[in-house]
């Protein structure tokens, strides 16, 4: 395992649409391990592959309920809304208010390329939406209501 370099807003890689994964190769397993290590080291709860410069549809999430790997994730259902603070490891030290669905149902593939469904509310729903956006070249700042503000701690980063 190794730490990867996190790409920051302004880097063109964060604006690209990522490619679907067709096979989980050893290289992709290493990438996933590295994404978790990089995410934890930065005190994040989610990371998308483009944030470490890889244009593949892979997301790692841990909102405190264990590790979640989502390959080729698709959001298939949403409900309700939540308005709250959101941050991103690609924009350290900043946060902003974003409205997201309060419930999300998503479909994705795991590391064995088995399809699964996951439901999440609150922070997990927010994290899934935020990370799936990254795979399509979007960052949360596009959705911020009002101004970004400075944060002292980065323990709510996505
Ligand atoms: Ni992010």
Kindly report the average pLDDT value. Answer: 96
Tell me, briefly, the overall form.
Answer: globular
Q: Encode the helix/strand succession as letters.
A: HEEEEEEEHE
Low-confidence stretches: none
Quaternary organization: single chain
Question: Would you give an account of this structure?
Answer:
The protein has 158 residues and is of the alpha+beta class. It is 19% helix and 32% strand. It has 2 helices and 8 strands. It has helices at 26-41, 122-135, and strands at 46-48, 58-61, 68-79, 82-86, 94-100, 103-109, 115-121, 145-150. A 5-stranded antiparallel β-sheet has the order 1-2-3-6-7. Strand 2 (58-61) and strand 3 form a beta hairpin. The mean pLDDT is 96. The structure holds nickel (II) ion.
Entry keywords:
single chain, 158 residues, alpha+beta, 2 helices, three-stranded antiparallel beta sheet, five-stranded antiparallel beta sheet, binds nickel (II) ion, 19% helix
Which helices and strands appear, and what pairs or packs with what?
Layout: H1 26-41, E1 46-48, E2 58-61, E3 68-79, E4 82-86, E5 94-100, E6 103-109, E7 115-121, H2 122-135, E8 145-150
Antiparallel strand pairs: 1-2, 2-3, 3-6, 4-5, 5-8, 6-7
The structure holds nickel (II) ion (NI).
Nickel (II) ion binds at residues 88-90, 130, 134, 158.
């Amino acid at each position: 395992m190794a730490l990867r370099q996190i790409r920051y807003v302004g880097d063109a890689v964060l604006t690209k649409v990522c490619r679907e994964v067709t096979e989980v190769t050893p290289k992709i397993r290493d990438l996933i391990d590295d994404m978790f290590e990089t995410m934890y080291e930065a005190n994040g709860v989610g990371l998308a592959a483009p944030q470490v410069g890889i244009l593949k549809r892979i997301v790692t999430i841990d909102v405190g309920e264990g590790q979640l790997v989502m390959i080729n994730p698709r959001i298939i259902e949403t409900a309700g809304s939540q308005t709250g603070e959101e941050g991103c490891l690609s924009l350290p030290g900043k946060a902003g208010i974003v409205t997201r669905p309060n419930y999300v149902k998503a479909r994705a593939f795991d590391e064995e390329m088995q399809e699964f469904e996951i439901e999440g509310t609150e922070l997990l729903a927010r994290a899934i939406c935020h990370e799936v956006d990254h795979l399509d070249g979007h960052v949360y700042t596009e959705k911020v209501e009002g101004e970004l503000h400075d944060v002292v701690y980065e323990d709510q980063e996505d």
